[in-house]
């Protein structure tokens, strides 16, 4: 469990903190961050994204599932979206792009979404369908891939 937690937290920090910092540092923009609707929205999205990411890492690791789950994880954040780890990272990156008013960071967020969708999620879904069969198919019917259904949030 600790290896899983450490690895996920390091990857999340690299993607959501170090790489955006590097992008901003290599293309400096206006230094002051003004308090306006864009920056408040950015901070809100960053906070929600970070919470979702950290919570889903915990939800996954708490059951000692690690990198090779033996049961289908469909509780916690996983009952709202099938890929909360990636959704949380992308949400935090979009928030950062708003906070710093950076088109480069928004492009980076889109790239992270696109790459995680094509390179990781589609592969994982095929593997999970083979491993868990009809249980995973039913889970896919009930839980959206990226954007939670509003009626699920109310229940």
List keywords for this structure.
mainly alpha; 155 residues
Summarize the structure.
It contains six helices and no strands. With 155 residues, it is an all-alpha fold. It has a single domain (2-23, 32-154), classed as Four Helix Bundle (Hemerythrin (Met), subunit A) (Up-down Bundle).
Polypeptide structure, described:
The chain is an all-alpha fold. The protein has a single domain (2-23, 32-154), classed as Four Helix Bundle (Hemerythrin (Met), subunit A). 72% of the residues lie in helices and 0% in strands. It has 6 helices and no strands. It has helices spanning 2-26, 37-62, 84-99, 103-132, 134-142, 150-154.
Reading off the top of the CATH hierarchy, the class is best stated as Mainly Alpha
Q: How many strands? A: 0
CATH architecture: Up-down Bundle
Unreliable spans are none
Average pLDDT: 85
Helix content: over 70%
Give the SSE order as H and E letters: HHHHHH
Number of helices: 6
Intertermini distance = 30 Å
Largest sheet: none
State the CATH topology: Four Helix Bundle (Hemerythrin (Met), subunit A)
When the domains are counted, the total is 1
């Amino acid at each position: 469990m600790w290896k899983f937690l450490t690895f996920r937290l390091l990857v999340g920090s690299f993607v959501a903190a170090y790489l955006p910092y590097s992008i901003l540092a290599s293309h400096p923009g206006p230094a002051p961050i003004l308090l306006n609707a864009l920056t408040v929205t950015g901070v809100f999205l960053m906070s929600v994204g970070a919470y979702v990411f950290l919570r889903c890492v915990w939800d996954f690791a708490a059951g000692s599932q690690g990198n090779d789950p033996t049961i289908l994880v469909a509780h916690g954040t996983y009952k709202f979206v099938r890929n909360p780890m990636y959704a949380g990272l992308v949400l935090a990156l979009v928030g950062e792009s708003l906070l710093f008013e950076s088109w480069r960071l928004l492009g980076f967020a889109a790239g992270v979404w696109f790459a995680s969708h094509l390179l990781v999620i589609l592969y994982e879904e095929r593997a999970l369908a083979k491993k868990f069969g009809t249980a995973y198919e039913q889970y896919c019917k009930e839980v959206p891939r990226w954007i939670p259904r509003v009626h699920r949030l109310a229940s």
